[in-house]
Each structure stands twice: as C-alpha cells, then as structure tokens.
Write a structure and sequence with these properties.
With 109 residues, this protein is α/β, with parallel strands linked by helices. Helices cover 39% and strands 22% of the residues. It is built from three helices and five strands. Strands 3-2-1-4-5 form a five-stranded mixed β-sheet, covered by helices on one side. The longest helix is centred in the N-terminal third of the chain and has 19 residues.
Length: 109
C-alpha cells in the first residue's frame, strides 16, 4: 500500500508539473490589408498610400506587438504591389498571413 501511494503521489506531481508548464498565449491582433488590382492598399477598410504603409504598420505593431497582417491580394494585383506590402510588413516587424481576395476577411470576434 505505501508503494502504491508513493507511485500515485509521483504521478500526480509529474502531471501537475506538466500542466504548470502549459499556458494559453494571448490572442494575436489581426489587421486586414487588401491589395486590389488598382494597386491602392486598403488597411482595415481605410485607403493607405504605398509610401505610408510602413509607417502605419509600425504604429499598429507598437500598439499590438503580436499583430498579424492578413494580406488579401486580388489575382489581378501586381506582384510588385504584393512584394511591397510584404516588405512594409517586414520593416514594421509584423507577421504576415496570406488569403485570396475572393475569401474576404474573416469576421472579427
């Protein structure tokens, strides 16, 4: 019986240690950047000039360090405008996720 209690105590302690090491990270903030064929960027519904995109993304990242930029590019968008958007996100140290323009932005919770 003492051996059983010792094993049970050991198993309980090991389980508690595993659970204590688990945590749920804070949810990441998302911003949606649409890249239409016209080349004009639309960030969360507001038009943004290409030259201003790095500054705007840097400001957003300062407010939400775990920011993820969802890029929704039209199939007709130029690869240069998409590359420019990715470059701006990298400058701002924002993580990037891609989605098709047809999918549309995910509903916000």
């Amino acid at each position: 019986m003492p051996l059983l209690r010792l094993r049970l105590a050991w198993a309980l302690a090991a389980s508690a240690a595993l659970v204590a090491g688990c945590y749920v990270p804070a949810p990441a903030s998302h911003a949606v950047l649409q890249v239409p064929a016209s080349g004009t960027y639309v960030l969360d519904g507001a038009a943004v000039e290409a030259a201003d995109l790095p500054r705007v993304l840097t400001a957003r990242q300062a407010q939400a360090p775990s920011l993820v930029l969802e890029i929704h590019a039209s199939p007709q968008a130029s690869s240069a405008s998409i590359q420019s958007a990715v470059s701006a996100a990298r400058q701002a140290r924002v993580r990037v996720a891609f989605a098709s323009a047809e999918a549309g932005p995910e509903p916000r919770h």
